Amino acid sequence: MSLDVIGSITGLISTAINLANYAKDVKGASQEWIDTCAQVECLEAILAEYCDSNQDPSAFRRAHSVKTQELIKPLISQTQRAFADLKKKSPKNHRGLKKYWKQASWPVFSKKEADDLQKKLSRLQQSFNLAMTQEVKTISSILLDYEEASRIRKWLEPPYYRGQAEDQDRFFSPIVASTGQRLLQSDEYQSWLNDRSSKKVFWCHGVPGAGKSAQISTILHDLQTKWLKQKTGPAIASIFFYILPDSIESLTIKVLLQTLLLQLLISLASKHTPEQGKSPIHRSVLDLDARYRQSNILPPVDELTRVFFEITQDDEFSAGVVLVVDNLHLVPVEKNPRVAEWMRDFFTSVQRSRNIKLLLCDRNTSVNMFLEDEEDVVYHELSAQKEDLRVYLNAKMSSKQFLRELEKEKDLTKEKVVEMIISRSDKSFLLPELQMREPLNAYSDKGISARLKTLPQEFQDIYRRDLLKVANLSPKKSLYAKKAISWVYFAKRRLSPYELQCAVNFGSPDCDGGARSSPIDIRRIIQWCQGIIDCPGINQGELDSEAITSTRVRFVHDTVHEILKKEPELVSAIEADIAKECIKYLESVDIPNHGDLFSSQAGNSKTRKYGLLSYSTEMWGYHASRSDSAEVDNLSLQFLQQDRRLELALEVVPKDADYDDTDVNSATALHIAAYFDYARLSDLIIRKGLVDIDMGPADILDSTIPKTPLIWAAISGSERVTECLIDYGANVNLQISGWSALHWAVTKSRTAIVKLLLDNKAIVDLPDDIQRTPLIYAASRGLPDIAKLLFNHGAAVDAYDCEYKTAVHHAADRNHLTVLKWLIEGATSRSVFGKAAGNRTPLSFAAGSGAVEVVSYLLTFNPSAEDITNALDWSVRKGHASVVSVLLEAGADCNCFFREWASVQNANDRSSYYTALQRASAQGNIPIMRLLLTYGADMHETAYGEFDCKAWAKTRNSYGVNKALLFLEDWERSFGKAQSTC
Any idea where the domains of the chain sit in the sequence? Predict the structure, then answer.
C-alpha cells in the first residue's frame, strides 16, 4: 500500500536529517557517517522499488490512489537529488575503506551545507506527510463507499436470491463434469465465446435429464474462476438466472433483472479494492439509489433495464459479459404472458448490444418465442456422453454388496450391466441414474437379472413406480412419506431437513414435531420416499446439527414437479392440511421472546429449537388463502383473535416505509387477511362485525393514524381482498398521512387494483399532502399502463404539486421517455411545459438528470432560447457532457450569466453570477470545458466577479481541477487570448 511506502520514506528522511545534523558537529565520528550512508542507501532502495512499480501501470494503479500518485511523483526526483548531494560528501578511497574511515577529517559537511540539506530534507518530509494525510482521507472515503455499496446491494437483492447460487453449486456436479468439459473445450463454444464478430446467441437444447443445467454450470464455473483470477486486464464476466419449478410463481420481470443486476455489481466489486481508489458501486446505481431511496421502493423495470445495459458498458467488462438463462421451457407463457413478452424484448435488446452474449438453455422450445433474430443463433444439442456414463455407472456399481450379488449371476458382469443401462439412456443422465437404483437395491428379493428385465423405459414410469412403492409401504410409513412429498411439492419456499422433519412429525400420535424426544428421523422419512426426495449428504449420513437446518430438501429432479402436476392423484392435495398444520403449530409453540427468531441474527440454533415455527409464521396465510376450506377459515380467525398469536403473525410484516410501527402495532385480523390476500377470511371477519373496515375517522395529515385494511390490500397487491372490502363499503378515498389506497396502488404498480378502485368511484385527481396526484406518481415511477388508465378515467395532465411540477416535469426528471411522450400527446395545452419552482422547465429537469433522449425529444417542441440556455446551466452543474453537447448544438448561449437560486430574489446582488465555463472549470470537468470553448465560451469572462475560469481552477486543490488548469493554459496557448463570442 502507498501508506507503507510513504511512511517508510518519511521515517528514513527523519533519520537522515538527524544523522546529517550530528555529522556536522562531531569530529572523527566515522561510524555515524557510515550509518548515514547506510540510511541513504536504504532510502534509495525504497525509491527504486517505488519507481519500478511506477513503470508498471497496472501494479502502480493497484498500489496507490490517483491523488496520492500525483502528490508523490514530483517528490521522488527531488528526494533523489537530495540524497545525491548527501553522498557527494562521502570520502572516496580505493586503498581500503576501513583504514580510510579512521584517517578521515571530520566534519565532511560545512555548517552551511548541512543546514541547507536539512532544510531541503525537512521540506520533503512535510510534503510526504501531506501525501500520507491525503491517502488516509482517500482510503477512509473508499471504505465508506464500500459500506454504502453493501447497503445498496442489500436493497436490490430480490427474494430467494441466495437460492440461485445454491442451485449453481448443486448443478456443478461431478456426475457430468467430463461432459461439461467437452462442451467447454468444443470449437463451437470457444469460437462463439471469443469471436466478437460471431453470432450473439448460443442456444443449448436437449432431452429432459441430459444434464443441461449441470453442463451450463461447468461453463459458469470456468468463466467465474477466470474472472476472479484475472486481477488486471480484460476477462469475460458471467451472470446467470435459473428458472426452477418451485420458483415459477414468484418469477417476475423485476426479480430477474434484480438478480442479474446484483451479479454485475458483485463482479465489479471483486475487481475494485480500497487500494485502487475506485468506487465499488457503479455511478448509475448510485444515481438510482439517490432517486428511489427516500420512497423506499425499487425502481421500475425500465429503470433497472437501462442501468443494467449501462453497467455492461463499464471498462471492466470490455472483454464482454455472458448472460446465461437456464430452463426457458419452464417460463409460464400462457399463465404469465407478460413475463414471456418482456423476456423476448430483453433478449432482443441483448442481441443488439455491443458487449453481451446470450447463452440460453432449454429442452426444445421454439426459438422465435424468445428471440426476434433467429439467424443470430448457434444451436448446440446437449446430451449425456457414453464415456461419461460408463465412468459414472462403474463407480456407482463398485459396492461390495452389489459385487457379491453379481457373483451369483451366470453370464452377467458389471460391464454388461453398465452397457445395458447405457443402451437405454436416451442421451440422458437422469434415466440411468434412476434406473440403477433397482440393480443396487439390496433389499429386493429378486436377482439382479430379474431386476434388470423390469427396468422402466422412461423416467416418468420410474416416478410412478416409486410412488407406487410409497403407497405399498406400511400405513404409518406410507403416511409419513406422502406427507413429506406433499410438503415439498406445495411449500412456498424450500424447507430445511429439520423443518420437513417437524412438518411430517407434527400431529402424529407419538410425536409433536420436535417438542418431544421421539420424532421420526428425517433420514428415515426420506428413505421411505423411495428416492423421490433428495437432500445433499442425506444418504451418506453427513447431516450434522448445522447442516440439518442450513441445507434444503428438494425433489430428485425438476421433472418430478411435472409428473405430480399432470397427475395430481399421485400426491395428496393437502394445501388445506398444510395450512391447518401451520396454524396448529403456531398455537402449540410458546415462545416468550419470539421476536429474535425473525431478526437478521437468528441462527440455525433457533431454527433447530423452534422447528417449523419460522415457515409456519411466514406461510400459513399463503396456504390458508389458497385452500378452499371453511374449517381452515375458522381456525385462522380463532388464531388471529388471540392477541399473542396475532402479534406472532405480524412478525412477517416488514417494518419499513410501507408499514411503520404504528401500522403494525395497530393491525387487526382484517389487516393480516389483506396482507395475505385471504378474501374468505376477510368476508368472515366483516360478516361477524369484528372490525371497523375504515378504522374510524381519520385526519389526512395525521401520521400517527394507522393505515386501513384497504390500504394494506393495495400495498400487498391483494386484489380479491380489495374487491371484498369495496363490496362491504370501504371508503376508497380515505387518506392516511395524505395518501389514499389509489396513491398506494399506483406507487406499488398494482394495475389491477388501480382499475378496481377507479371503477368504484376513487377520485382520480385526489391530491396528497404535497398536492401530488396519482398521475404524478405514475409519471415519476415510469408506469405507462397505469398512467393511461388514470388518464382514461379523467386524470388531469396539467395538475401540479406544491412545487408547480406537473406529471410531465416528473417524467422528464426521472428519464421516463415512454410515459413523457404519452403525457404530452394527451395534454390539452402547453401549460405542461411551464416553469416549476426554481424557474425550471421539463427540459431543465431532463438536462439535470442527464436524460439525453428526453432532452432531444423535448427540443422538438421548439422551446425558447432562454429555456434551452437555462437547461445548459443544469447539465453543466450535474456534469452531463452528452446533454451539454445536444443543448449547445440547439443554440444554448454558452456565455450567459447564471445566478445561484439563493440570490435570485435580490436582483442587485452580483456576487453569485457565473458562466457555464466558470462552473465547469471550478468542477474540473474537462470534457464540458472543451465543448463550451469549442462553441465560443469566453475564458476571460469574470461575470461581475474577480475570477475568470482560470482563477476558479486555481482556487481548487483537487487532482481534477489541476488538470483543468493545465487544459485551459494549453487551450490559451493554442488558440490565443482572443475568444470569439457565441
Answer: 2-149, 157-381, 386-455, 457-572, 894-982
Decide: helix, strand or coil at residue 770.
Answer: coil
Give the pLDDT confidence score for residue 829 in this predicted structure.
77
Per-residue pLDDT at 697: 52
Q: Which CATH class is domain 2-149?
A: mainly alpha
Single-letter residue type at 34? I
Question: Which sign, positive or negative, has the C-alpha torsion 768, 771, 775, 780?
Answer: negative
CA distances (Å), origin 724, targets 681, 700, 793: 10, 24, 22
| CA 547 to each of CA 467, 520, 535, 914: distance values in angstroms, whole numbers, following the listed order | 27, 18, 10, 66
Which 8-state DSSP code applies to residue 534?
A: E
pLDDT at res. 301: 80
Q: What is the DSSP letter of 376?
A: G
In terms of DSSP bridges, do strands 913-914 and 554-555 run parallel, antiparallel, or are they unpaired?
unpaired
Architecture of the domain delimited by 894-982: Alpha Horseshoe (1.25)
The shares of helix, strand and coil residues in the chain, as percent rounded to the nearest 5, are 60, 5, 35
The backbone torsions φ and ψ at residue 542, rounded to the nearest 5 degrees and listed phi first, read -95, 0
**Beta strands at 533-534 and 377-381: parallel, antiparallel or unpaired:** unpaired
Three cell numbers written together for 606: 433457533
CA distances 402 to 3, 415, 420, 440, 450, Å, are 65, 13, 16, 6, 14
Integer Cα distance of 61 and 316 in angstroms: 14
Q: 11, 33, 15: which is closest to 24 by C-alpha? A: 33
Q: Count of H helices and E strands in the chain?
A: 49, 9
Q: What is the C-alpha to C-alpha distance for residues 46 and 126, in angstroms, rounded to an integer?
A: 18
CA 444 to chain centre: 51
Q: Are 892 and 873 in contact (CB under 8 A)?
A: no
CATH of domain 157-381: 3.40.50.300
Crossing angle of the two packed helices 414-423 and 400-407, in degrees rounded to 10 = 100
| Structure confidence at residue 676 (pLDDT) | 93
Question: Do the Cβ atoms of 583 and 624 come closer than 8 Å?
Answer: yes
Angle in degrees, CA 857, 863, 867, rounded to 5: 110
Count of CB atoms within 10 A of residue 518's CB? 10
DSSP 903: G
User: Residues of the chain whose pLDDT is less than 50?
Assistant: 1-3, 26-29, 53-68, 92-108, 511-516, 592, 594-608, 698-701, 901-908, 910, 957-961, 978-982
pTM over 0.90, yes/no: no
The residue behind cell 422528464 is 812
Within a 13 Å sphere around the CA of 591, how many CA atoms are in the beta-carbon half? 24
> DSSP per residue over 311-374, as a string?
HHTSGGGTT-EEEEEE-GGGS-TTT-HHHHHHHHHHHHHHHHSSSEEEEEEESS--GGGT-S-G
Q: Do residues 385 and 178 make contact, with C-beta atoms less than 8 angstroms apart?
A: yes
Closest of 152, 128, 134 to residue 279, by C-alpha? 152
Per-residue confidence (pLDDT) for residue 285, from 0 to 100:
83
